[in-house]
Structures are given as C-alpha cells and as structure tokens.
Design brief:
The chain is mostly beta strands. It has one domain: Jelly Rolls (Sandwich), CATH 2.60.120.380. Strands 2, 3, 5, 6, 8 and 10 form a six-stranded antiparallel β-sheet that branches. The chain has a five-stranded antiparallel β-sheet with strand order 1-11-4-9-7, with no helix packed on it. The two termini are about 25 Å apart.
C-alpha cells in the first residue's frame, strides 16, 4: 500500500517561539489565518495548534483560543469551548513538562490564536507552539 502525499496538503506555521513564562500574565501566540483575505480562494478546513511544553517548574497555565475576522485582532473574542477541541478543563502544571498538546479550532472566524493564562508562577515554564492546517481549498500548500 502506498503512502498519501501529505506534503502538498498540510501547512505549518510557527506561532509561538520557545518562550519562558515566569509571571502571572496572558501570553498570546501569533495569529493563524483560516481564510487568507489576500487570496480568498485559500482557506483551511482543518486547524490545530500543537503546544510543546519544556520544563515547567511551577505555576498553573490555562489554555484558551481567541478569534477575530481582523488579522490584527482588534476585537478578539474567547472561542466557546464547543468550537475548540482538547482544552476543556485543561490546566497545565509541573506534571505537564516535556509534553505535546493538540488544540483544535472549529470556529467560523478568519483568524485565531492561542492564549496561555498563567497564575502562581515564579520561575515558570517554557512553551512553544506550531499551527498545523489541513484540507486547503486549493493546493498544493506551499
């Protein structure tokens, strides 16, 4: 049985370079385009953020998604849990070190981003994230 050519069907975007979160704050990823407003024929039906944790020494980290039709996120709205997958009730702690979490988006806006809300931090934790997109309306995805 031959393999499927996923290379031409998937898009990857770095949305959060490795960063240390060591204070109680909201950390936002870069935005992910679901619909490319410069090329309205290009959109993705499958949208996931892969969040990678490195060492987490302390703190609690709650994950959520925000979306907006404006790529500058001029009026971002927290995405309802019924339009997300993988974050309902999830709080990351020191036991979440060196792990990968899959966060799905099924909303209807043109853009979305990851929001990490940290509490009870002093030395904190290290995080990075990548968007993985599939089922493009046009291809191949470059």
């Amino acid at each position: 049985m031959s393999s499927i050519d996923l290379h031409a069907k998937l898009g990857f975007t770095n949305v959060l370079s490795l960063t240390t979160i060591s204070s109680d704050t909201d950390t936002l990823s870069s935005g992910v385009k679901v619909v490319d407003v410069d090329d309205s024929t290009l959109s993705f039906e499958g949208n996931v953020i892969a969040l990678k944790t490195e060492t987490i020494t302390d703190g609690n980290y709650t994950l959520s998604l925000e979306d907006d039709d404006n790529p500058a996120f001029s009026a971002p709205v927290t995405v309802p849990l019924d339009q997300t997958k993988g974050i309902d009730g999830v709080t990351l702690t020191s036991t979440s070190s060196d792990s990968v979490f899959k966060i799905g988006y099924t909303g209807d806006k043109n853009n979305f981003r990851l929001k990490i809300t940290s509490t009870s931090t002093s030395t904190g934790g290290e995080f990075s994230a990548m968007a993985v997109q599939s089922n493009a309306t046009v291809g191949p995805v470059l």
